[in-house]
Amino acid sequence: MTEQWLVEADEIAATVARQIHNRYAVYFEASDVKQELIIWALKRPNKIKEWLDPEQEPADRKGGIRQCAKAMQREADKYCRSRKAKAVGYETRDEAFYNIGIIEELIAHMNEANEQQVTQQIRVSGGGGDPATGGNFLISIIDVRAAMDKLDPDDRLILEMRYQENMTLGQIATVFDLSDTTIHRRINGSLKRMVKVLGGESPWAYTARRVMSNSQANAIVSDNN
What we know:
There is one protein chain. This protein has ten helices and no strands. Helices cover 62% and strands 0% of the residues. Helix 1 packs antiparallel against helix 2 (30-42) and helix 8 crosses helix 9 (180-197).
């Protein structure tokens, strides 16, 4: 008889596989992704059992299911990217991803971009390339500029004042008649929206992260209350 934790893991894997596979449907089947996730789960039964322990309090059990799903989502995305890279003929290390730090740096250098930089290969700190752009600085600038154009005009202006004109939060707050805290919150919100527009941060960054157990998470919450 199949253990209950494995039945639940199979259901979660099937859901995650369908969701992630939608972005890679032309390269392989969703069943391939699910199989990879089941193999992943079988290699770490203790952690999966901890997440899906039916004896937990309802809130903890719900949190455990969510943690399991998120972990599977990361694994599925990594697997799908690897399969796509192999099918298309490039290395996953050549993919380009944007995080907040990279976007901040690119905004600051946006005015430096010019026609002579079209073929210049410059990598920003922590940046990468992809099969299409090869890490081209100007292409990255164009990406970030396009993401900025999707922001509210005031939010876009705040970013320009902060990163291109090197204005302090206080100076920007005075211009907009807002508090420093509000300006800081709007900057962070704008940068996060830009990361999302540009495809999100690299899923490979999670490789070395240790997933916190439910008991550890509850201890931290208790300490902060």
